[in-house]
Amino acid sequence: MDKIFKYSYKTRMGFMINDDSLQVLNDLTDNEINLVITSPPFPLLRKKEYGNKEQFEYIDWLLTFAKLVYKKLTPDGSFVIDLGGVYQKGVPIRSLYNFRLLLKLCDEIGFNLAEEFYWYNPSKLPSPIEWVNKRKIRTKDSVNTVWWLSKTENPKSDVSKVLVPYSERMKKLIKSPSKFYKPKLRPSGHNIGKNFSINNGGAIPSNLLNIPNSESNSLYFRRCKAANIKTHPARFPEKLPKFFIKMLTDEGDLVVDIFAGSNTTGLVSEKLLRKWISIENRLDYVSSSVFRFIDESISNNQIIEMHNLINDGKKLDISNYQPTQSLFDVDNKNVTYSLS
């Protein structure tokens, strides 16, 4: 993080970079990144505006990034990758690309599968239309696979940082344990002892993450709408990267997203006081992603000006932003929020 990056904007904790992820990764020091978390463009049958690859190209394409990720991760670092399911072309049969990719990540590059997660998105629209809506021979695809990969068998991780609320029944059990169970060895082999009734502040989460992907009222969405700018078509919900960033990193650690899109990962890392680098090769996505970091005290005209300056190749420094200060200090090379 001591390097001078060719950034589009920077905050207190990180940099948003409009460039090729392979180039940026290559410039980073080996064994430097604590967590790479990303959601690459999926290999869908229909071409999307964010540049998805065909299924037959996809695995080899993504492996080129994964090889560099492996080199750049700290020995106890993690690689978390969100992958959507797809169908084979013309038939109601699922592609196995995400499982084939997993095998290559582990067998050829050397990653370990620390754990597989499944992201259930209840707000996802029915798809594909042909098999689900028209012929009604398949159910709605609402689950993505999320592979948590590591360089070592014991990566940095602390589940106590991501505990979930207790169920109502568990709350009753903790309050009056003798009414609900007796410590003993269960037929399943589980030895339920007295500590089972201790209040640990929450329950251990499962590897099924129930997170709706709906942010129609977020600051980013409202800013894009007010500026008449298209939002990114496949946005991360904040809760997804938040879960893994909290569990797998500490404050001050470095988090990287190599397909950053609208930069949800950077925003969550900023909130959690992690250093971050987000990389996105589409300038229009980069320029609108700055909206996530600017509060509502800034006028729409100023927001549009920031967006246009990034599109023009200027660099914005919003690391010490204070709304009462003048908006910009401009020179021939950079545009800096007047903040220091």
Structural domain tally: 2
Question: Assembly state here?
Answer: single chain
| CATH fold type of the largest domain | Rossmann fold
Strand content: 15-25%
The largest beta-sheet arranges its strands as: 9-5-6-4-3-10-11-2-1-12
Sequence of secondary-structure elements: EEHEHEHEHEHEEEHHEHEHHEEE
List strands and helices in order, with pairings.
Blueprint: E1 7-10, E2 14-18, H1 21-27, E3 33-38, H2 55-72, E4 73-83, H3 97-109, E5 112-120, H4 129-134, E6 143-150, H5 168-175, E7 184-185, E8 191-192, E9 208-210, H6 219-226, H7 239-248, E10 254-257, H8 264-271, E11 275-280, H9 283-289, H10 300-311, E12 316-317, E13 328-330, E14 335-337
Parallel strand pairs: 1-12, 2-11, 3-4, 3-10, 5-9, 10-11
Antiparallel strand pairs: 1-2, 4-6, 5-6, 7-8, 13-14
Helix pairs in contact: 1-2, 2-3, 9-10
Can you describe this structure?
Helices cover 29% and strands 20% of the residues. The protein is an alpha/beta fold and 340 residues long. The chain folds into 2 domains: 7-162 and 206-300, Rossmann fold; 165-203, no CATH class. The protein has a 10-stranded mixed beta sheet with strand order 9-5-6-4-3-10-11-2-1-12, sandwiched between helices. It has a two-stranded antiparallel ribbon with strand order 7-8. The two termini are 20 Å apart.
Briefly summarize what is shown.
The chain is α/β, with parallel strands linked by helices and 340 residues long.
